[in-house]
C-alpha cells in the first residue's frame, strides 16, 4: 500500500454474536473493510473493460477463510448428489486471480463461480442450499413451528433425508462439516479437520460424530485423540462437550449448540457461517448501504462509482425527514423495539409513493435517539448546479445497483474475508455493466493476499467468455424431463479450448442447460 500509515477500523455488520467485533489498527475510517484514505490515494474508480488496475489495497496479512467445496443431495429440484467445487483445476488461464492456500500443497481456489441455465433449471436452488446451511448452522430454525423447513426433491421422496457437506477454510485449517436431516430433525452430523500434508482424502481426521437415538436425542462421539494439534482439547473440554451433547435438540446441530452454551472451541467455525458466508438479500444490502451513507466520505465514493458506471447519478445521501412520512409503513414489531430500551438498531422502511415505486427511509436508534432519514439521489444540471432527483425516481437498474453495491465493495477491497452468494447478478443491468462488475472482482483478486469469493447465477451469455472466466468457474444447471436438476462444470467437457466460442456452443446445446420450448405454444384455439 502506498503512502503513509493507515488506521483501519473493520466493522462487521449483521447480528451481534461472540465472533463479531471491531478491530482498530493505526488516519481513515473503514466500513465494510474499505479504507477511505487508501481509496483516495489509489484512485478507487472503474477503468475501461480490460484495462489493468492498480494493486489490491492490502493493509495486513491474514489467513484465508474461504469455501473449498459444497455438495448436497435431495434438495428441491436436485434428487441425486450435486456439487460445486471452488478448487482450481490444472488450467493455466487467469492463474493470477487464484487464491493460494498456505500449508496445503498444490491447492488453489477460485475467486468466482458462475451458474448458467434455463428458467427453473435449478440455478437458484444451489444458492438456496448454501443459504439454508448458513441459517441452520447459526440457529435460525431452532424454534421453527411445523418442523425444519427443509425441502426434498418433488415429485419423488420429499420425506427422505436431505444431506449437506461443506468444506471450508478458517484460520488456515481446512474443515468438513456434514449433516443430514428431515423436517423432524437432524439424523446425523460429523465434523472433520484436514492435516496440512496435501489435500488427499487420507488427511481427514474426525473431531466428532453425532447420531440420533430412538427417542430423537443426540448421541455424540468425541474423538479427542484425533485432535492433538487443535488448541484447548483436554479432559475438562471433553466433559463440557459431553454435557452439551445431552442438551442438543433435534432442530439444532451439535456445533451450533456448543456456541450457544458458550463453549468456544468451535466458535471460529460458527463465525465463518455467521459472518464470512453472506447472502445478498435486498433489504439487508439496502440497510447496509444506507448505514454506509451516514459517512459523507462514503457518499463521495459511491458517487464516483455511480458516475463511472454511467448511471446519471452524481451523488447519493441521506436527508432528514419527519417521522410522519413513514407512520403507515413502519413494521409494528420494529416500532415496539424502537419504543423500548433497546440497543442500536436500523430498519429500512419502504413508503409507497406511486403504483410502481417506493421511497426508502432509514430509521435508526442510537444512544436512545431515533432518527428518520430518506435515501436521496442527486444529479448535475448542465450549468453545473446540483438537483435533487429522488431515489424513488431512479431506474430499476440504478436501484438494483445500489442494492448490491455493498457486496461489490466488499469483494473489491482485496482485504475482506467473504463468500458472497448473489442470485441473478445481471438482473436489471446492461451486459457491459455486469461484465465491468465481475471483471473488477477478478482484478481485485490478483495478489497473494486475496481471500474473497463470489458465487452467482446469471442468464447473461456475454459473461460466458474465457477472456473473463476460467472453464472451471463456469457451471451449467439443467433440468431433465422428470424435473430433476443436475449441475456440471464446463471444465468437465472435453475439447474446451481457449479459442472455443462458448456462447455459440452453449446455444447449440452442447453443454445442456437450455430451456425446452414447445414452438407450438399458444397456437391452440387460434383462428387459421
Automatic annotation (TrEMBL):
**What Pfam families does the record tag this protein with?**
AAA_21
Q: Which SUPFAM superfamilies does the UniProt entry name for this protein?
A: P-loop containing nucleoside triphosphate hydrolases
Q: Where is the ATPase AAA-type core domain?
A: 113-186, 346-465
Classification via Gene3D superfamilies: P-loop containing nucleotide triphosphate hydrolases
Give GO MF terms, alphabetically: ATP binding; ATP hydrolysis activity
Q: Which InterPro entries match?
A: ATPase_AAA_core, P-loop_NTPase
Query: Which PANTHER family is this protein grouped with?
Result: ATPASE AAA-TYPE CORE DOMAIN-CONTAINING PROTEIN, ATPASE-LIKE PROTEIN
Protein name per its UniProtKB record:
Abortive phage resistance protein
Amino acid at each position: 500500500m502506498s503512502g503513509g500509515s493507515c488506521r483501519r477500523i473493520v466493522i462487521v455488520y449483521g447480528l451481534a454474536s461472540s465472533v463479531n467485533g471491531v478491530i482498530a489498527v493505526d488516519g481513515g475510517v473503514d466500513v465494510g473493510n474499505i479504507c477511505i484514505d487508501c481509496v483516495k490515494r489509489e484512485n478507487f474508480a472503474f477503468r475501461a473493460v480490460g484495462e489493468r488496475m492498480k494493486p489490491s489495497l492490502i493493509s495486513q496479512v491474514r489467513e484465508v477463510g474461504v469455501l473449498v467445496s459444497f455438495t448436497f443431495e435431495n434438495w428441491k429440484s436436485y434428487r441425486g448428489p450435486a456439487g460445486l467445487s471452488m478448487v482450481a483445476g490444472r488450467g493455466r488461464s487467469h492463474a493470477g486471480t487464484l487464491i493460494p492456500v498456505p500449508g496445503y500443497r498444490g491447492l488453489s481456489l477460485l475467486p468466482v463461480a458462475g451458474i448458467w441455465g434455463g428458467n427453473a433449471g435449478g440455478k437458484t436452488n444451489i444458492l438456496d442450499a448454501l443459504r439454508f446451511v448458513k441459517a441452520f448452522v447459526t440457529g435460525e430454525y431452532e424454534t421453527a413451528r411445523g418442523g425444519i423447513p427443509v425441502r426434498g426433491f418433488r415429485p419423488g421422496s420429499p420425506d427422505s433425508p436431505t444431506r449437506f457437506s461443506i468444506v471450508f477454510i478458517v484460520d488456515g485449517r481446512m474443515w468438513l462439516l456434514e449433516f443430514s436431516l428431515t423436517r423432524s430433525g437432524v439424523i446425523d452430523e460429523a465434523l472433520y479437520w484436514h492435516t496440512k500434508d496435501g489435500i488427499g482424502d487420507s488427511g481427514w481426521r474426525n473431531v466428532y460424530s453425532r447420531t440420533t437415538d430412538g427417542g430423537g436425542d443426540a448421541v455424540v462421539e468425541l474423538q479427542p485423540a484425533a485432535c492433538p494439534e487443535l488448541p484447548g482439547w483436554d479432559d475438562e473440554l471433553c466433559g463440557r462437550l459431553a454435557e452439551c451433547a445431552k442438551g442438543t435438540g433435534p432442530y439444532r446441530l451439535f456445533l451450533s449448540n456448543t456456541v450457544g452454551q458458550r463453549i468456544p472451541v468451535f466458535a471460529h467455525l460458527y463465525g465463518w457461517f455467521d459472518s464470512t458466508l453472506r447472502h445478498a438479500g435486498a433489504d439487508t444490502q439496502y440497510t447496509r448501504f444506507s448505514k454506509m451513507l451516514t459517512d459523507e466520505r462514503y457518499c463521495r465514493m459511491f458517487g464516483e462509482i455511480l458516475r463511472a458506471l454511467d448511471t446519471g447519478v452524481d451523488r447519493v445521501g441521506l436527508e432528514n425527514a419527519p417521522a410522519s412520512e413513514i407512520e403507515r409503513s413502519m413494521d409494528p414489531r420494529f416500532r415496539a423495539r424502537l419504543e423500548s430500551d433497546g440497543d442500536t438498531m436500523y430498519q429500512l422502511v419502504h413508503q409507497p409513493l406511486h403504483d410502481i415505486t417506493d421511497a426508502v427511509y432509514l430509521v435508526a436508534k442510537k444512544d436512545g435517539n431515533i432518527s428518520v432519514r430518506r435515501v436521496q439521489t442527486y444529479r448535475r444540471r448542465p450549468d453545473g448546479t446540483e438537483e435533487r432527483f429522488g431515489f424513488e425516481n431512479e431506474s430499476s437498474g440504478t436501484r438494483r445497483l445500489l442494492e448490491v453495491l455493498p457486496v461489490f465493495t466488499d469483494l473489491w477491497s482485496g482485504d475482506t474475508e467473504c463468500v458472497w452468494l448473489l442470485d441473478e447478478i445481471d438482473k436489471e443491468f446492461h451486459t457491459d455493466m455486469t461484465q465491468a462488475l465481475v471483471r473488477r472482482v477478478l482484478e481485485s483478486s490478483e495478489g497473494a493476499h486475496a481471500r474473497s469469493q463470489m458465487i452467482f447465477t446469471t442468464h447473461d451469455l456475454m459473461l460466458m467468455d474465457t477472456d473473463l472466466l476460467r472453464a472451471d468457474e463456469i457451471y451449467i444447471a439443467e433440468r431433465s424431463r422428470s424435473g430433476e436438476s443436475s449441475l456440471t462444470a464446463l471444465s468437465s467437457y472435453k475439447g474446451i479450448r481457449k479459442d472455443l466460442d462458448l456462447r455459440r456452443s452453449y446455444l447449440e446445446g452442447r453443454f445442456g442447460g437450455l430451456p425446452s420450448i414447445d414452438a407450438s405454444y399458444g397456437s391452440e384455439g387460434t383462428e387459421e
